[in-house]
Amino acid sequence: MNGPRIHVGLAPELRMFAVPERRRERTAVVTDGASTLGHVIESLGVPLTEVGGLLVDGRETPVSHVPRAGETVEVCAVARPQRVPGAPLRFLLDVHLGTLARRLRLLGVDAAYESEDLGDPALAALSAAQRRVLLSRDRGLLRRRELWAGAYVYSDRPDDQLRDILGRFTPELAPWTRCTACNGPLEDADKDTVGERLEHGTRRTYDVFAQCTACERVYWRGAHHARLEAIVQQAVGEFGAAVR
């Protein structure tokens, strides 16, 4: 590009997205004179889903602004907790975030997820159609124009991913109310009603059951309950009491 030169400062939280030579407190960027500020920021590697605001020479400015020579741009990170207006807070997770999806569902958070890769265009369109916040570690996916709302998942560790999303969006928690397999709502189930779905040892050992109203999967407090309860208690303790 051979156009106006501007000076861009990235918030510390956003510098990880830029190439090493752009991670300084402020860096000079030569634009083409026609691209919007949003396009310039994305060209530095920063998804706009992670941008909380833009200040041009100290003034709040939209991403549609076309930079002029000599301007100083401060790129702010998203404020936490982040509010998502216009729809109930619901999530859509890409194919690589299955563990995070199951843990969100365990906490009663509406988290849609497909185990097969639908492809970036279909995921972005589904986000728009269902008005869900798309969670992904794929920056290219988060740049798609048809996306309704999105968020970059900063860690590759499920424990940190869960803490990141709960801290960023502060969804209401209602543990043990959603199917971890399909995201449907759970309801209490009578042992006699679900008995034919259970192995003999399970029928003999357990008396309290829940069943998904969508896929009919049956749940009980089995061998993995202690591990799941630990996840629930940590989340509730850190991010607020459960809503029942």
TrEMBL record:
Domain Ubiquitin Mut7-C residues, every copy: 5-81
Domain Mut7-C RNAse, residue spans: 90-231
Entries under PANTHER family matching the protein: MUT7-C DOMAIN-CONTAINING PROTEIN, MUT7-C RNASE DOMAIN-CONTAINING PROTEIN
This protein's name: Mut7-C RNAse domain-containing protein
